[in-house]
Amino acid sequence: MGARKFTIKVPATSANIGPGFDVVGLSLSLYLTLRVLQPDRSSDQPYIPPLLKYTGEGAEEVPLDAYKNLTTRVALYVLRCHDIRSFPSTLEIHVDNEIPFGRGLGSSGAAVIAGVLLGNELGGLKLSKERLLDFALMVERHPDNVTAALVGGFVGSYLRELDAAATEAASVPLSEVLPEYPPDAGEDWGLNPPLPPLGIGHYVRFGWSETIKAVAIIPRFELSTATAREVLPLEYSRKDLVFNLQRLAVLTTALGQSPPDPELIYEAMKDRVHQPYRKKLIPGLPEVTSAITPTTHPGLLGICLSGAGPTILALATHGFEAIAEDARAIFRKTNVEIDWKLLTVVGGSVVE
Ligand SMILES: Nc1ncnc2c1ncn2[C@@H]1O[C@H](COP(=O)(O)OP(=O)(O)O)[C@@H](O)[C@H]1O
Ligand SMILES: N[C@@H](CCOP(=O)(O)O)C(=O)O
């Protein structure tokens, strides 16, 4: 096979959009891009491990060892599930990342999808979208970010109820799905990882009104998704579940209507399942979401925590700067500085 060059581009995502905890996601115009060079090497030359270069968000902290980096470990997981033991020799991968880490904009979901797509390309596996999603869901267990990052747009997804054997296969600890393959490991170390059950995740794309843009108000501190999930209760009252279900049912259609109706959407983006518990991790969150309304800020449709936070997502048709600058002033009172970006809803991942 001759030398190959290809590019993998995966968008950022905002999950939950208020009431859709672990259910809905939106793909946004910030990208994780991998430029891959797979030189033509004949098999009698000595094996040279992958060279990983990284620029952009997270460049100072991300491991450059392909056996430790999240994206390349996921790629190796996919390859090993298909009896391909290692990366091809002298592989070069240049990662450029626009998605900030630990801010609720789906950086880890994007890294996982990039890894699944990388494994699929390197192995020439030609996996279907559904199968790619199965692999991603073995690593990132909530489907909202990875589904939106893969297929793009405003997406709802659920995990299929699995039979006992498949449940066991899908509940393998992450450390076993994704061991940190040491570069000097023996030949058989880490082979035969657990295969994902077939058809774990199912999704549908909702309509999205072209007039709606997303203002991402991004505090300058990281909050890991794991920490923001630990503060959530294991059980909820019927009242709170019904509160969210009523709003989510309305929201998934309301965001596709033109012109979008702020009165309907603002209330439909409220949540009682995750935001109230996460406010203690994000000083300023309740103040921002209650002070910025369609009445005070014409153009605003609704406002919520993006993913697990700390980013706040305001959906709006105009008046973007006033929304962001007023959020900045409120956050500043709690000694939190922010950056903000105006983003659009984009298509899913592309390999070319
Ligand atoms: N492009 C990437 N390459 C390698 N690791 C990444 C990448 N993006 C994210 N990660 C890992 O995921 C972590 C952030 O994940 P998480 O806490 O779920 O926050 P987020 O809301 O950004 O997804 C980072 O600290 C890093 O370990
Ligand atoms: N539904 C998840 C989404 C996490 O998204 P992230 O972008 O913060 O990784 C949750 O709310 O925990």
TrEMBL record:
Record-level GO BP terms: threonine biosynthetic process
Taxonomic superkingdom: Eukaryota
PANTHER family membership: HOMOSERINE KINASE, HOMOSERINE/4-DIPHOSPHOCYTIDYL-2-C-METHYL-D-ERYTHRITOL KINASE
HAMAP family: Homoser_kinase (MF_00384)
Protein EC: 2.7.1.39
Gene Ontology MF: a single term: ATP binding
Protein name (Swiss-Prot/TrEMBL): Homoserine kinase
Native organism: Favolaschia claudopus
Annotated GHMP kinase N-terminal domain residues: 69-153
Pathway: Amino-acid biosynthesis; L-threonine biosynthesis; L-threonine from L-aspartate: step 4/5
NCBIfam families according to UniProt: thrB (TIGR00191)
Family assignment from sequence similarity: Belongs to the GHMP kinase family. Homoserine kinase subfamily.
Record key words, sorted: Amino-acid biosynthesis, ATP-binding, Kinase, Nucleotide-binding, Threonine biosynthesis, Transferase
Catalytic activity: L-homoserine + ATP = O-phospho-L-homoserine + ADP + H(+)
A Pfam family of this chain: GHMP_kinases_N
